[in-house]
Design brief:
Oligomer: single chain
Strand order of the largest sheet: 1-2
Largest sheet: 2 strands, antiparallel
CATH topology: Multidrug-efflux Transporter Regulator, Chain: A, Domain 2
Radius of gyration: 27 Å
Helix content: 55-70%
Number of strands: 2
Shape: elongated
CATH class: Mainly Alpha
Number of domains: 1
Order of helices and strands: HHEEHHHHH
Structural class: mainly alpha
Distance between the termini: 79 Å
Number of helices: 7
Strand content: under 5%
């Protein structure tokens, strides 16, 4: 078991093992500026992480699981790094996500209704006259009926 003290730094393999994140992901987060105050470089250019990186990685993972983008997360971490709690910003981001999810649900419900309507009127064997002018008459029923109305 690795004992963490505030003075001990961790190498990227240790951070990956403890956080259960791939090394590649940790490197990417560093490149995106998400780990800035918790990482430094050794004389031989190895990444050295403060133990606080683990809390930061847990915050990133949780925020992503709630649908926040890395850009949004970076903005929240910047507020934190300036010595402030980003809770109000987190709340605003989550409220925005709720609105987006609600819109997605409404769009999906509309799509489901449209799909169910198509399936209700499905014809396995349309007439040859209709089949000759379409790719799939069931999907193009609206187009075919509009053409008939304009003729």
């Amino acid at each position: 078991m690795i004992m963490l003290t505030s003075e001990r730094t961790l190498q990227i393999g240790e951070v990956a093992a403890i956080s259960k994140l791939p090394i590649k992901t940790i490197r990417y987060y560093e490149e995106q500026g998400l780990l800035t105050p918790t990482v430094s470089r050794s004389k031989s250019n190895y990444r050295l992480f403060e133990a606080s990186v683990l809390q930061r990685l847990a915050f990133i993972k949780r925020s992503q699981s709630l649908g926040l983008s890395l850009r949004e997360i970076r903005d929240l971490l910047t507020v934190h790094d300036q010595g402030q709690l980003p809770c109000e910003d987190v709340k605003q981001n989550l409220q925005k996500k709720v609105r987006q999810v609600t819109e997605q649900i409404e769009s999906l419900q509309l799509l489901r209704s449209e799909l169910q309507g198509l399936l209700l009127g499905w014809q396995d064997h349309p007439s040859a006259a209709i089949a000759a002018h379409t790719i799939c008459p069931n999907l193009e029923a609206d187009i075919v009926s509009k053409r008939s109305q304009h003729s």
